[in-house]
C-alpha cells in the first residue's frame, strides 16, 4: 500500500514538472532526427542569347570567356558536389518572340559530374536567341529539386530579361516565399545599370550575391567561390518559423538559425529561454528584395514578458545596402548590475529559467507600385552560451585604495619636480 502511494506521488510530481516546464523550444534541426549529409547541389545557368557575341572582355567574346571559365570550374570541382548546367537562348534562331521566350534547356543534369561530357556540352554553345531569365530560373529550381540543405543557382548573363512575364524578380520572390531553400547568385558580364538592378533584385530576394565580372579571371574565380560556398555553407538550412504579434504565444526558439518574412513596418515576436549564468546572443538580417525608400532601419530588442526592455541593437541603412542587420547580447547578470545588489535569493530560485522576448521591427516604406507581399526575407540567429563577463582588472579603482594611490603619485610628482627645478636653478647660476 505504501509503495503504491509513493508511485502515485512520483507520477503526480512528474506531471506537475512537465506542466511547469511547458512546451520544448523549437530547434533549427528538428526536421530530421538523424541528419543525413546531402551532397551540395549547384546548377549553373548560362545566358547564350545573341548579345553574348559581343567582344568586350579582354578583347574576346563574352561567350568564349564564359566557356573558358566553365571548363576551369569543372576541372576544379570537388568530387562530392553535384552539378547541373542549364542554358537560355541557345537554340532558337527565329524572330518569333513567343517561341524564342521558351528557349531554355538543361544540357547537363544535376548529379555527379562527368567532366568530359560537361565540357563538350558547353563547348558547342553558340549565341543565338532571346533572354528568358525568369523561365530559366523557375526551371533551374525544378532541376535542383528539394532537400534538407540549401541549393544554389549561379546565373551568368549579360543582359536583362527580354521575355517577361514571368519577371525574373517576381520568380525569385516566388521561389523564396515557397521556402524552397534556394539561393540564386548572379554574375553580370556587361556594365549596364538596368542589368545590375535586375540581378541585384534576383540575388537579394533569395539571400544570394551579385557580382560584376569584367575579366575572364574575375568570372572564373567568382564561380569557383560560389561553388565552394555551396559545399562549405548551409549544411543545415534555416528552419522556417512564424513570429507572433506579441510575446505571449510567440514561438519558443532554441539556439539555431531561423527564416521568416516580415511586412513593411511590422513587429514580429519570438521567445528564448535563458537560464542563470547564460548569455543570449541574437542577430537578425533583413534582405532588401524590392525597391524601398532610402531612409529605413532594422531594430532588434530583447524584452521581459511584461514589456520591460532589457537591451536593444539597432542598425540603419543608407538606401544602397542589400541587407540590413542588427544584433544584441544580454545576460541576467547585466540586469543585476544595473539594479544594484539583489535581495537574498529564495532557495531553488537560482535554477529558474527566464523567458526573454525578441522583437524584430523595421521602418521600411515601399516605393509607389512596390508589392507588399510576401514580406521581406528575415534570417534570425539565436544562441545561448555561458555568460562571459569582461575579465576583472586589478582592484585599484575603488574607495580609499584609489585615493591613497593618487596621493602618493602627487607627492612623488611634486618631489621630482622640486629636485629638477633646484638643479636647473643651480646650473643656471653657475653658468
Automatic annotation (TrEMBL):
<dbReference type="InterPro" id="IPR051266">
    <property type="entry name" value="CLCR"/>
</dbReference>
<keyword id="KW-1133">Transmembrane helix</keyword>
<keyword id="KW-0472">Membrane</keyword>
<dbReference type="InterPro" id="IPR036465">
    <property type="entry name" value="vWFA_dom_sf"/>
</dbReference>
<feature type="region of interest" description="Disordered">
    <location>
        <begin position="330"/>
        <end position="350"/>
    </location>
</feature>
<dbReference type="Pfam" id="PF13519">
    <property type="entry name" value="VWA_2"/>
</dbReference>
<dbReference type="InterPro" id="IPR002035">
    <property type="entry name" value="VWF_A"/>
</dbReference>
<keyword id="KW-0732">Signal</keyword>
<feature type="signal peptide">
    <location>
        <begin position="1"/>
        <end position="28"/>
    </location>
</feature>
<keyword id="KW-0812">Transmembrane</keyword>
<feature type="transmembrane region" description="Helical">
    <location>
        <begin position="400"/>
        <end position="425"/>
    </location>
</feature>
<feature type="domain" description="VWFA">
    <location>
        <begin position="41"/>
        <end position="230"/>
    </location>
</feature>
<protein>
    <submittedName>
        <fullName>Ca-activated chloride channel family protein</fullName>
    </submittedName>
</protein>
Amino acid at each position: 500500500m505504501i509503495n503504491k502511494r509513493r508511485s502515485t506521488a512520483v507520477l503526480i510530481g512528474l506531471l506537475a514538472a512537465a506542466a511547469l516546464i511547458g512546451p520544448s523550444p523549437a530547434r533549427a534541426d528538428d526536421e530530421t532526427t538523424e541528419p543525413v549529409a546531402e551532397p551540395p547541389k549547384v546548377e549553373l545557368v548560362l545566358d547564350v542569347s545573341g548579345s553574348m557575341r559581343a567582344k568586350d572582355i579582354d578583347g574576346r567574346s563574352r561567350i568564349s570567356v564564359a566557356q573558358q571559365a566553365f571548363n576551369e570550374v569543372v576541372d576544379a570541382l570537388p568530387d562530392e558536389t553535384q552539378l547541373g548546367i542549364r542554358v537560355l537562348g541557345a537554340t532558337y534562331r527565329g524572330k518569333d518572340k513567343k517561341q524564342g521566350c521558351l528557349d531554355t534547356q538543361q544540357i547537363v543534369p544535376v548529379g555527379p559530374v562527368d567532366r568530359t561530357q560537361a565540357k563538350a556540352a558547353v563547348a558547342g554553345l553558340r549565341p543565338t536567341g532571346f533572354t528568358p531569365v525568369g523561365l530559366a530560373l523557375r526551371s533551374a529550381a525544378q532541376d535542383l529539386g528539394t532537400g534538407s540543405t540549401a541549393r544554389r543557382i549561379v546565373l551568368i548573363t549579360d543582359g536583362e530579361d527580354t521575355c517577361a512575364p514571368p519577371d525574373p524578380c517576381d520568380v525569385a520572390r516566388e521561389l523564396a516565399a515557397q521556402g524552397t531553400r534556394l539561393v540564386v547568385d548572379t554574375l553580370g558580364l556587361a556594365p549596364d545599370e538596368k542589368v545590375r538592378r535586375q540581378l541585384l533584385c534576383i540575388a537579394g530576394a533569395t539571400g544570394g550575391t551579385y557580382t560584376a565580372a569584367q575579366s575572364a579571371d574575375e568570372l572564373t574565380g567568382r564561380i569557383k567561390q560560389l561553388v565552394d560556398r555551396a559545399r562549405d555553407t548551409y549544411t543545415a538550412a534555416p528552419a522556417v518559423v512564424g513570429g507572433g504579434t506579441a510575446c505571449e504565444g510567440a514561438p519558443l526558439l532554441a539556439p539555431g538559425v531561423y527564416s521568416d518574412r516580415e511586412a513593411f513596418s511590422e513587429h514580429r515576436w519570438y521567445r528564448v529561454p535563458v537560464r542563470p549564468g547564460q548569455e543570449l546572443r541574437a542577430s537578425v538580417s533583413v534582405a532588401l528584395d524590392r525597391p524601398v525608400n532610402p531612409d529605413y532601419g532594422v531594430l532588434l530588442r530583447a524584452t521581459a514578458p511584461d514589456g520591460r526592455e532589457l537591451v536593444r541593437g539597432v542598425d540603419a541603412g543608407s538606401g544602397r545596402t542589400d541587407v540590413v542587420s542588427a544584433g544584441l547580447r544580454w545576460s541576467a547578470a547585466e540586469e543585476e548590475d544595473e539594479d544594484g545588489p539583489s535581495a537574498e535569493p529564495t532557495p531553488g530560485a537560482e535554477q529558474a529559467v527566464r523567458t526573454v522576448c525578441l522583437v524584430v521591427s523595421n521602418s521600411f516604406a515601399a516605393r509607389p507600385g512596390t508589392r507588399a507581399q510576401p514580406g521581406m526575407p528575415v534570417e534570425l540567429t539565436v544562441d545561448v552560451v555561458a555568460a562571459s563577463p569582461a575579465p576583472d582588472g586589478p582592484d585599484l579603482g575603488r574607495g580609499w585604495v584609489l585615493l591613497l594611490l593618487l596621493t602618493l603619485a602627487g607627492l612623488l610628482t611634486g618631489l621630482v619636480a622640486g629636485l629638477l627645478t633646484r638643479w636647473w636653478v643651480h646650473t643656471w647660476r653657475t653658468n
